[in-house]
Design brief:
This protein has about 290 residues and is α+β, with helices and mostly antiparallel strands. The chain folds into three domains: about 40 residues, no CATH class; about 90 residues, Trypsin-like serine proteases (Thrombin, subunit H); about 110 residues, Trypsin-like serine proteases (Thrombin, subunit H). The strands form two sheets. It has a six-stranded antiparallel barrel with strand order 1-2-3-6-5-4. It has a six-stranded antiparallel barrel with strand order 7-8-9-12-11-10. The relative contact order is 0.18.
Length: about 290
């Protein structure tokens, strides 16, 4: 559902004499240009201006470390999470027409319980799930829904031994943390789409509108990210740098007509909001205040 964000004259060696024919003005310019190299550069320049010594001073400098370096091994994170991310397809009858929808989900149990958004499966007459690396969709049934929190639990039929996601602690997530969004963006074939960004804000509240039927609802405690998320990512995980799920991708900001387009503003339901609601979803039926 959302766009993401983009990741960011050294003179001769200290102690080397100025080339013949340089004017004093040129040499002063070189000294000023070297000032950022630190004390040694200033000392060497003073040495050649004064001309008092023939001693050469050598010192090692460590390379500068980028202040915002985020050494995240994306492939390693994906190896732990991506196998448990599924694509969801639905059909529904809307105003007499058949509407096909796509979304994402996270496998919670090895026997096929999958967590997704309520708006992904709302009103669906059929639900199918495609596992990573497979092309044949599997039938699924809806176990329980909480429309007020935009949560749903579905059961994939006839499976066992599936890899599962692992929940993290969204309350400990901090603005600026690296995050990955994984899901069935735009329903593209060939597996999930992966995007990288940061946690932009926490504890957001907003009113969201479903594409199917235009139903609106209020959501709170959301995580905001600039990792690119698009239609079809709904229900997929937002994970931290250790591969733990801290949220479920749910909504994307869209500007009103005539307003500059929103960029890099997406939202996920915090996993610490989801955890205490899972038992009710597993009991079945529709719960919550929807």
């Amino acid at each position: 559902m959302w766009p993401g964000w983009g990741a960011g004259t050294t003179p001769g060696p200290a102690g080397s004499p100025a080339p013949r024919g340089w004017s004093r003005r040129h040499w002063i310019g070189l000294v000023l240009g070297c000032a950022s190299l630190g004390a040694l550069a200033g000392g060497a320049a003073g040495y050649w201006v004064a001309g008092r010594s023939q001693e050469t001073i050598v010192e090692r400098f460590s390379p500068n470390a980028p202040p915002l370096a985020r050494p995240v091994d994306v492939q390693a994170v994906l190896a732990t999470v991506e196998p448990a991310v599924v694509s969801i397809s639905t059909t529904a009858r809307v105003h007499g027409a058949t509407v096909v929808g796509t979304g994402s989900g996270m496998v919670l149990t090895s026997d096929g319980q999958v967590l997704t958004n309520d708006h992904v499966i709302a009103g669906a007459s059929t639900v199918t799930v495609t596992l990573l690396g497979q092309t044949q969709p599997l039938p699924a049934t809806v176990v329980g829904t909480d429309p007020g929190q935009d949560l749903a639990l579905i059961q994939v039929e006839g499976v066992r031994g599936l890899p599962t996601v692992h929940f993290g602690d969204s309350d400990r997530a901090r603005v600026g943390d690296t995050v990955l969004a994984i899901g069935n963006a735009l329903g593209l074939s060939g597996g999930p789409t992966v995007t990288e960004g940061i946690l932009s804000s926490t504890d957001r509240s907003l009113s969201v509108t479903s594409d199917l039927g235009g139903r609106s609802q209020e959501l709170s405690g959301l995580l905001q990210t600039d990792a690119a998320i698009n239609a079809g990512n709904s229900g997929g995980p937002l994970v931290d740098s250790s591969g733990r799920v801290i949220g479920m991708n749910t909504a994307v900001a869209e500007s009103e007509r005539g307003v500059a387009p929103a960029q890099g503003i997406g939202f996920a339901i915090a996993v610490d909001t989801i955890k205490p609601l899972l038992a009710r979803l597993r009991r079945g039926g529709t719960v919550g205040n929807g």
